[in-house]
TrEMBL record:
Its EC number is 6.1.1.17. Belongs to the class-I aminoacyl-tRNA synthetase family. Glutamate--tRNA ligase type 1 subfamily. HAMAP family: Glu_tRNA_synth_type1. One of its GO terms (molecular function) is ligase activity. It holds the Pfam family tRNA-synt_1c. Its main location: cytoplasm. It comes from Kribbella ginsengisoli. Monomer. This is Glutamate--tRNA ligase. Signal peptide: none annotated.
Length: 512
């Protein structure tokens, strides 16, 4: 890899008009999407939308033993939830379908037949044992241990002999005997030497096409112009470039080789690449915890890219406008769960109260706090509470604990035992008795009069510090030590429920 000046827009587009940009995201429906998958999808989506091009969703579902219809639907639903809309692909259609690789097997077989006929690919009859032996001999001699081209130029007699032995050949691509150089949009110019690029397998002996064949074939036929993918796939790039060239020779696709950009690794704990088994790696966790799609995407965008040196929080529309593949950092990016949560919290605070309330309802309903379809009065109460909790919550899964006390009946209301043990002690009985008397005399049930009455009674009258004065009141009405602001909570809860809960809490205290 060598240093080079940052490419211009003209370099990035490679002679294309901006609206001719076509990128793809090719997930395999074998389970949950990871944050690394999503980051790749996001960068492709932003790149396409920045230039007014198209994002193609193509499904790598050729592994029948691992792919399921349920996993495919989950993938589609997840991308929809994230708002990463695709322009072509399943459920959308397009001119270059089908978009499931399992439905393109005849296409791959036809392309392989043409590569063989043109001499750009050949049958290899070497057994695995023979390959292992030759590789070990090469390593012992200090030579390159890749495939040695043994079957590149077999005579008809040798081929017939292998066939009579019952050998089933693989198909290999005939790699060029020259260096392969390409200008990576993220990493600059990269060169691979021919001695490190052996003829690789396109089709297994059972006739099954492999990833290094099907993806370039699909890219060529779907006229993909740019391939933005993880750096773990970088070693396969020169082989794929050689295949693009071979496909162009036999008239497959537009004849253009896509521009490549290899995105940095996402690292987890211990400075290791984030694994799908690591905590925080799967998308499902963020959906379950109540992250906002825009909050999660905002954070993932920061794993290798930034909108500005002094700014971390932005909308997806702002990202589309500002996204520049040339500014993606080639160095690995570390996934920080705490920062991810903080970015999400910032987006939650940007929501209008009605929007916030609507997004919280499914989590309150799941916890049994609200019905799936709340009444107008319940929604009004929830919306009124939003400004008092937006600064206190990081995810919507926190909503039931923070807001549940507002929606439970006084008969079903209970106080958290731990909170009671730590707060409803000592002078709590006197505090609650004074609170009940002070609140009973409040005229208009609003935050300001409520606060004035309690401060006069508990702080001035009893001489208590605010923590000792208001802590028992908070626990009595909310059931917990952490709640929305106390005086606002009393107003939201209402006069009758507030007085009833204070009396219930006082009555529950042990007698002196």
């Amino acid at each position: 890899m060598t240093e080079r000046p940052a490419p211009t827009d003209e370099d990035v587009l490679g002679g294309l008009e901006p609206n001719q940009v076509r990128v793809r995201f090719p997930p395999s429906p074998t389970g949950l999407l990871t944050v690394g998958n999503i980051r790749s999808a996001l960068f492709n989506w932003a790149f396409a939308h920045h230039y007014g091009g198209k994002l193609v969703l193509r499904i790598e579902d050729t592994d029948k033993s691992r792919n399921t219809p349920e996993a495919l639907q989950y993938t589609l639903d997840s991308l929809t939830w994230l708002g990463l809309n695709w322009d072509e692909g399943p459920e959308v259609g397009g001119d270059f379908g089908p978009y499931l690789q399992s439905e393109r097997m005849d296409t791959y077989a036809d392309v392989v037949a043409k590569l063989l006929a043109a001499g750009r690919a050949y049958h290899c009859y070497c057994s695995q044992e023979e390959l292992d032996q030759r590789r070990e001999a090469a390593r012992t001699a200090g030579q390159h241990s890749g495939y040695d081209g043994h079957c590149r130029a077999l005579t008809p007699e040798q081929v017939q002999a292998y066939i009579e032995e019952g050998r089933r050949p693989v198909v290999r691509l005939r790699m060029p005997d020259r260096p392969i150089t390409f200008d990576d949009l993220v990493r600059g110019e990269i060169t691979f030497l021919p001695e490190n690029l052996g003829d690789y397998v396109l089709v297994r002996a059972n006739g099954y096409p492999l990833y290094p064949l099907v993806n370039p074939v699909d890219d060529a036929l779907m006229e993909i112009t740019h391939v933005l993918r993880g750096e773990d796939l970088l070693p396969s790039t020169p082989r794929q470039i050689a295949l693009y060239e071979a496909l162009a020779e036999i008239g497959i696709g537009s004849g253009r080789t896509p521009r490549f950009g290899h995105l940095p690794f996402v690292m987890g704990e211990g400075n290791k690449k984030l694994s799908k088994r690591d905590p925080g790696a799967g998308l499902g966790e963020y959906m379950e915890r109540g992250f906002l799609p825009e909050g999660l995407l905002n954070y993932l965008a920061l794993l290798g890219w930034s909108i500005a040196d002094d700014r971390d929080v932005f909308t997806m529309d702002e990202m589309i406008k500002a996204f520049d593949i040339r500014k993606v950092n080639a160095n690995a990016a570390r996934f920080d769960p705490k920062k991810c949560e903080a970015i999400n919290a910032s987006h939650m605070r940007l929501l209008e109260p009605a929007d916030w309330a609507g997004r919280a309802v499914p989590f309150l309903a799941k916890a049994g706090v609200l019905p799936a379809e709340p009444s107008d009065a319940q929604l009004a109460l929830l919306t009124a509470a939003v400004p008092h909790v937006q600064e206190r919550m990081n995810t919507f899964s926190e909503a039931p604990e923070m807001l549940g006390f507002l929606f439970v009946s006084d008969q079903d209301f209970s106080i958290d035992p731990d909170s009671a043990a730590k707060v409803l002690t000592g002078d709590a009985g006197a505090v609650l008795e004074a609170t009940g008397k002070a609140l009973a005399g409040v005229g208009e049930w609003k935050t300001e009069p409520i606060e004035a009455a309690l401060r006069a009674s508990l702080i001035e009258g009893l001489g208590l510090k605010p923590k000792n004065a208001f802590g028992p009141v908070r626990v009595a009405i909310s059931g917990r030590r952490i709640s929305p602001p106390l005086f606002e909570s009393l107003e939201l809860l209402g006069r009758e429920s507030s007085l009833r809960r204070i009396e219930q809490a006082r009555a529950s205290l042990p007698a002196d």
